[in-house]
Amino acid sequence: MPNKEEYDWDINPDKYLVDEEGNFILKVDGTPRKKGGRAKGSKGRGYTYHSRTQAKMDATKTVKEKEKKIKAAQSKIDNYKKSVTATKKTLNKLENENAQKLVSADELDNVPTALQAEATEDVIFKANEGPQEDFLAAGEIDVLYGGAAGGGKSFAMIIDPLRYAHRSAHRALIIRRSMPELRELIDKSRELYPKAFPGCKYKEVEKMWLFPSGAKLEFGFLERDADVYRYQGQAYSFIGFDEITHLPTEFAWNYLGSRLRTTDPEIEVYMRCTANPGGAGAHWVKKRYIDPAPPNESFRGADGLTRKFIPARLQDNPYLAKDGRYEQMLASLPPTQRQQLLDGNWDVAEGAAFTEFSPFTHVIPPFEIPVGWERTKGIDYGYASESACIWGAVDPNDGTLIIYRELYRKGLLGTELASMITEMEYEDPFSVPGVLDTACWSRTGTTGPTVGETLQRAGHKLRRADKNRIQGKIQIHEYLKVKQSGRPRIQIFNTCPNLIRELQSIPLDKSKPEDVDTHASDHAYDALRYLIMARPRINDTISQLRQFRKESHFQPVDSTFGY
């Protein structure tokens, strides 16, 4: 094709015929027809032609075809969205309906089969009026639901985390001490969750529930404190501890509490605990939840968290109370267990090592210790755990040991402990001699002074404690006995709350019943044991006064070590 003809219709389009849409009218050979040209059907030049206008026409056709396909795809997407929306509405409707169609927790667990038959097929769960209902509606961050057995605590624990199960970001964790105990909760959840949330799935290996919204609920157990590190780096909007008194220390609670957070502003993070009185951890649970405020009264803890203790009683569960047999079984238990499980009494300890200890007998108001009384102290040192120092004085009238002061502090260096003891002994007439845990003189490869040496250089007269655990426990039993005069051999000022708490609650070692459970809080107990094993005695008053004059107050300290 000549160059002139190749570009002519592009350069001079007005010379060529066009249709109503502005497209060139083509000849048989595909070239544009000129105005005044040959008649239709006449023979052309026979050369190959490609115009910009034709390319535009082809492109327009392609675009229209694509637009048609896009409209068809969009139609499918719209239909899918409508289907998803309808599904969500259906699920929400089911959730709302199931939230209102309730069956008592204990109908599915503890009560006789005859009572279970009273429930209708549409009912999933109904909170018992009173404490269980209050627990599930509580707005505090940290709540303990506990007391007597049969109050529906376990069912409340597996129902409460469903509060945000419709939120995709919700992550819940329920903890028990051992795997067999965990199995009980899992079985209850497998009975209830599919009814409340059709489509939810349980993953056996992970011990985890997946809800239609994307929310997750995980079950875990903590046989040892170190097990908490399995949850390192995790984030949970709900953490529940079922039977929390089975945890001997508060370490696990503190660590897992740091995992409490969420990215969803619509979710309020919270923790829930259930427990019966007694157990290795009863002392710290009682201190955290029971002692600070009356039952059912909200308060703010030292850590800033809002808390509440909601007591549970058998009478709060109409199904078990109606049956009567469960109450009879609880009433037949030994006295301590009966008070705990039937009455929900937190002031008695299951398997308590010192059942003869009584606050009414052994705890007295403070008074000024006379100058002539022999004074001594026992020290149990710990850095990761509490350091405890117990001061005692012997009444020369009858030999009664008076515990008149305590130091109970965590995270102290040897120098800090020495300084605090010195400060607390400021008003004593002379430097109080004492006994210290033998481990405090052990070297660990460092070149600096040991804790024992540090205390001695600060002016404290110390010797190594007798650490015979069995004999020490026996001696404490002897001191707790009431004499014929009606007075025990040991009395404790009410200003020593940690020693009183440990003597009241420390349990026996189940594998070694002649000793106490060393996993429980025993630091003040150990310090007292060291003190008593030092065999404090009645001193000659004249000798005491001579010592007072000799020492003037307390011995000078060594400034080299920064005291």
Q: Which terms would index this structure?
A:
563 residues, alpha/beta, Rossmann fold, 9-stranded mixed beta sheet, 7-stranded mixed beta sheet, elongated, disordered N terminus
Short description:
The protein is α/β, with parallel strands linked by helices and 563 residues long. Helices cover 35% and strands 16% of the residues.
Percent in helix? 25-40%
What proportion strand? 15-25%
Structural class: alpha/beta
Count of helical regions: 18
Q: How far apart lie the N and C ends? A: 109 Å
Compute the number of structural domains: 4
Major sheet strand order: 3-4-5-2-6-7-1-9-8
Q: Just give the CATH class of the largest domain.
A: Alpha Beta
What Rg do the Cα atoms give?
40 Å
The CATH superfamily of the largest domain is P-loop containing nucleotide triphosphate hydrolases
Describe the structure.
It is a single chain. This protein has helices spanning 3-11, 52-100, 113-116, 131-137, 153-159, 179-196, 251-257, 282-290, 318-323, 325-331, 335-341, 359-362, 414-424, 451-457, 469-480, 497-505, 523-533, 541-551, and strands at 142-147, 171-176, 201-203, 208-210, 216-221, 238-241, 270-275, 299-300, 306-312, 363-364, 374-380, 386-394, 401-410, 434-436, 462-464, 490-493, 508-509, 512-516. It is an alpha/beta fold. The strands form three sheets. It has a nine-stranded mixed sheet, with helices on both faces. α15 crosses α17. The longest helix is centred in the N-terminal third of the chain and has 49 residues, at 52-100. It is elongated. The N and C termini lie far apart (109 Å). 35% of the residues are buried.
